[in-house]
Amino acid sequence: MIDPSKLISINGAVKILITKPAIDGITIHLSTNRKIAIMGETGSGKSTFLKLIAGLEQLDAGQIFYKGEIIKGPNEKLIAGHPKIVYLSQHFELRNNYKIHEILSYANEMTEKESSKLYELCRINHLFDRWTDELSGGEKQRVALAKLLTAKPELLLLDEPFSNLDYGNKTIIKHVINDLMDTLKISCIMVSHDASDLLSWADDLIILKDGKIEQFGNPMELYHQPLNKYCANLLGEYQLLEYKSKLLQSLLPSVNQTENKQLLIRPNYFSFNNPANTSIKGIVQKINHRTNYNIVTVSIQDELIDIATIENTYTIGELISFSFNRNTFWFI
After folding, report:
1. For residue 126, which phi and psi values (nearest 5 degrees)?
2. Domain ranges, residue 65
3. What is the block-wise mean pLDDT of the chain (332 residues), using blocks of 10 residues?
4. Domain end point (choices 233, 268, 296)
5. Which end of the chain is less enclosed by CB atoms within 10 A, N or C?
6. Alpha carbons 3 and 224: distance in angstroms, whole number
């Protein structure tokens, strides 16, 4: 029995590309009014998964439902796609030799007031009299997004929306997506390969591997409690400490550990300059400068640990003190 209150219900979905399943028997139910993220390594089936939901690819087995209504594939209807679902590819194609106002006016189902608000949210009001080939990549993407949304969909599918953008345009489109969801009250499923784009945005996170769901749940729970090394790696930098590690004993002297598990450590599990909690000392071996933080590699009893910090005052060879700031521990 399909629950019509669910946004998307997928039962045993299979999609074969050439001879290998791109989607291999996925069953999952996604709630409405959620920000849903999808991650996975290259070839894990992310884009195919989105296209199946959009009705742009044909299932080889299984069924996909939108609010209890079956989504038909391109072999089952004249014009592919579901009227309440729109899909924006990472290439965000626009037809050449058209003015932007012409592109936006075609098949627009919104009132003038609704359209005006949409264009404002997409930051494209100043582009109306330009030709499509006069736009930057970020501008083309926002126009393509606005064009899709003039059809008044209820579900927006975004395939790697940040992959081809510079930092400035990436920041703009992030704000646009959030503003659109808040104002238009639409649901969104987004694919990205960058955990930093998704962890603070998503309500639910799906991790795909070889066309199957490897892990599904709250993004921060998956970040701190990944199922395995594959999931841990997708969500950010990490280290695993063996049960015999002297470093593990320094960090967690009272924790009983079994031989077949390793302690998950992420660089942001530490802090410096907190005298009340500082109990660990080590020597700085390397400093790796990132965009807005640093990774300080510290040696403790001949073992190395990476620590994230915004401080820029440490020097190689310096003896430093720090604390391990996790009250709960996760072993893989």
Report:
1. -80, 0
2. 6-233
3. 84 93 95 94 95 97 95 93 94 87 90 95 96 92 95 95 89 94 94 92 97 97 97 96 81 70 92 68 92 91 90 90 84 90
4. 233
5. N
6. 31
